Amino acid sequence: MARTYEYRHVVGFQETNLVGNVYYTNHVAWQGRVREMFLREHAPGIVAELMSGLALATLRCSCEYFMELHAFDDVAIRMQLAEMVQNRITMTYEYWRQKGTGEELVARGEQQIACLRREGESVVATPIPAELRAALQPFLR
Questions:
Q1: Residue ranges in the chain modelled with pLDDT below 50
Q2: Which of 35, 39, 101, 140 has CA 20 to 30 A from 81's CA?
Q3: Among 3, 83, 88, which Cα is nearest to 38's?
């Protein structure tokens, strides 16, 4: 069974709109945060590579919204690897509101990134670094 990487987040007022629910773009921002925390915990060498020419470029992202979130909602955002092909990585995200002893699915998203390398003024496709590939593999759904 595939592992799931989980990041916990408590919604703040700054993430809500005038109506009081979470502004929709925050879900996409949280995908980026989950990705960053995954790298920090499971592939720290990639962070150093990002400073020396590696680029992880987001090619596409999406989010389907099922229920609204509000300030102080406790959300578990769970990421899994959907696919690794050549220099591209696709991850899925599920957003679960924590409620007492249960939880409810409030949104689902997907994000695809490409591994690139900066060479002078341009960027070129590069294979997924071995450390990142190894870190992601246990999370393949």
A1: none
A2: 101
A3: 3
